[in-house]
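Review box. Two proteins, two foldings.
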Amino acid sequence: MNNAMIRYILGQVLRIEGLLMLLPCIVAVIYQEKEGFVILGVAALCFFLGTAGIIRKPKSQVFYLKEGCVATALSWIVMSVFGCLPFYLTGEIPSFVDAMFETISGFTTTGSSILTDVEAMSRSVNFWRCFTHWIGGMGVLVFLLAVIPLSGGSHINLMRAESPGPSVGKLVPKIKYTARILYIIYIGMTLVQIVLLLIGSMPLYDALTITFGTAGTGGFAIKGDSIAGYSSYLQWVITIFMILFGVNFNAYYLILFRKFKKAAAMEEVRYYFLVIIAATAFITWSLCSTAMGFAEALKYAAFQVASIITTTGFATTDFNLWSGSCQVILVLLMFIGACAGSTGGGIKVSRFVLLLKTVKKELNSYIHPKSIKKIKIDSKPVEHEVVRSTNVYFITFMILFVTSIFIVSLEGQDLVTTFTAVATTINNVGPGLAGVGPMSNFAHLSNLSKIVLMFDMLAGRLELFPLLILFHPSLWKDAFQQRVKRKKPAIETGY
């Protein structure tokens, strides 16, 4: 295993995190907040440690998927540990476990919070809290590939380990340019939303922080009522952009290069919008059966559906009060999630499409045993390896999901709270139902439950295996044996 390359990547990640922390420092200067000195100190620490990690460049920059997974998992853990220090050291979140929970929830774009009074936070620390969504949305390693000159040709393994979805491909031959294209689209859409929110008379600070949460599909709000206090225009803008950020970014690439037919032919995107329309229509109809008017019902339904399926987690109403059927739909949307290759979480629409087509193929094989049919998506045959990995992912997901529910249930919470707490964190959604609903938070849970949910958030964001591989015994055995081999020649030659 290329340990030197892993160290080098971790160093670069820390340096980037240190530089990104300068933005909340600027906010602290604008609002004259002393918390800015703490954030600046943490930024300096990150930059110093990161620089120390990259002084010695690795002899070889070639690494495989195993190293890519390890580097990705460790990067997100290290990033979260240092990212929580502004919360902890400023005293805004006095508990280190709570500070880690909030930070991991931010970077993984989950949006689950332990804060009972978010409006009491200083503007600079709250800015960093919301900014973690934007950083984690596209992925810090994708950003690294876009701005840092790495060579070797194997860096697709970093993108594979961090990017959501059953498979990751290059938009252009060089992975560096693919990463840059993704970030150009990401930044462009972010700026457009900020402008549209400003047009609706939203204050600049609010527009920036809300956009960070929308773009990263995170859901950290700066007000106690989330988005409910803003105008209908602003709510509709946020609704539309939540949906747009849940679309596979490959579609935007095709649109930019005027390949409209190919973009329109993407099955996953079509199913994604179909699910949104169907869920919104049903919930609107259900809400209209109450005393609510059609326009208001549509606004509430569209916002909540967009927020849940894209795993953003903003809220404009307490859907704990909705009918059981509407709540069931929202829970199902938690699992479905957004498109692969987007900033959204969940199992992903593409995986469900693939699973349904696999079931259909199996049924056809019972009727026509001698027939040989390939599973196709976008009129292209899907490789057996992709189908196999999707099946394995789903099985692993369910094992982790059930195990987490059992551990959290030991705390004695009711079934709905326990089930949706795990469901919303492993799918990176944010709010659940009952005790962890949109008008509640995760503060009342025990530290054990919070640690389990933190693990679920990281596992969900990293597509399970990059994190789970850290617990594989052979990984550490190989690393140990490699260190022994390096020392052995020196001992034998007497040096």
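Next protein.
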Amino acid sequence: MFKVGFDNEAYLKTQSEKIAERIAKFGGKLYLEFGGKLFDDHHASRVLPGFAPDSKIRMLEKIKDKAEVIIAINAGDIEKNKVRGDLGITYDQDVLRLIDAFRGYGLYVSSVVLTRWQEQPSAVAYQKKLEGLGLKVYRHYPIAGYPSNIPLVVSDDGYGKNEFVETTRELVVVTAPGPGSGKMAVCLSQIYHENKRGIKAGYAKFETFPIWNIPLKHPVNLAYEAATADLNDVNMIDPFHLEAYGQTTINYNRDVEIFPVLNALFTRILGESPYKSPTDMGVNMAGNCIIDDDAVCEAAKQEIIRRYYNTLCDVRKGNAEKDQIYKQELIMEQAQISTADRPVIAAAVERAQLTEGPAVAIQLNDGAIISAKTSSLLGASSAMLLDALKHLAGIPDEVRLLSPMVIEPIQNLKTKQLGHRNPRLHMDEALVALSVCALTDYNAKIALEKLPELRHCEVHSSVILSQVDVGVFRRLGVNLTTEPNYQSGNLYHG
């Protein structure tokens, strides 16, 4: 059951103050690398209950008059049509989505940087498209031996070859559609150019996870490892911070491994390094805003199990290697949990076995578990949704929210007019039908009003669901897992 464990308002306040301190430290010009998701950070909201998915952007909104945004995208990712797994859109499309989103919050997007530029045809076309939309576009180039070849990197043939991005504000946020986009390289290249122009500028990093001031094996940090199993990220004690300050802090392997190189780059560019450890570079106050550790631990453990099932399904779909499953199992062992700690799994699987067909179960915030099977009229997800709403509204089981007279015309439209093979109503169709019925039926009306109470509930399906149903669950704020099985034996599952 959902229980708040994180003070979001305190986070917004302290995080803003920390960034302001860091700007002042560097004389009024800071390049801030933003890792993770600026928008819709649902991982953070799941493992830190109370964390708002838009917290980071709301924090920036507070200082929008002092900030501008640079978006970096790897030109190679444009050429390969790289797709964001969570949104199902390409990186180049996501850049446009991000710009619109930033502008919606009143934030100024000054430019787009195309990193690792090698005249890729798709990247050339993309630059023309962006410029046609009135955006400033800059190109940064690959550097041989980057980042270890420090004499070359910090020279006119390294960073000096990159186009200098013109900026006007004291805080420059550098973000990207996803990992590998070159955010850090853009920041360091800019510092090199700024320094050559006699401007003192600094660098800092803003990533929510791992949280540096909670234990290494805290479930929240383990959940981050589970979320990044495909990247082979491993949380570790920051040895540089321990040596410099005698304080144990947590970072992840990539930042620790790259720090000696970064330190040398800072020294070469600025004359001395402003940081003694990768932890020093961060400006993350999330750990200070946990107000109920038990609630946060439980939420993180549930996320670890969800990530395990996501990986099982990715392997089943051919989108991941089996090694990732073994890593997820190891993380579960470290967290001392199993699939039995997610009650909806057993409920869905048991219902599927009894009915010999697909089944879906939900655990509501009052602790009740409701399961449903596929019928001739409704998919299992739709049937479960209606049953859950009836429970929340106190409507007897025997009452039908949707009569066959309402469902059958929709089915006829789907199969006879639109050519669908599956006549059963998906969740979006069931909700539209329920909305229509709510105009004349009191039970449908009060059931529909209970939709917001599904937020933060846990759901498990005995089969991999259609993208339609997955999308509805996501929009309802429901935490979904599925068994790694398809309903049919078909080779194509669109």
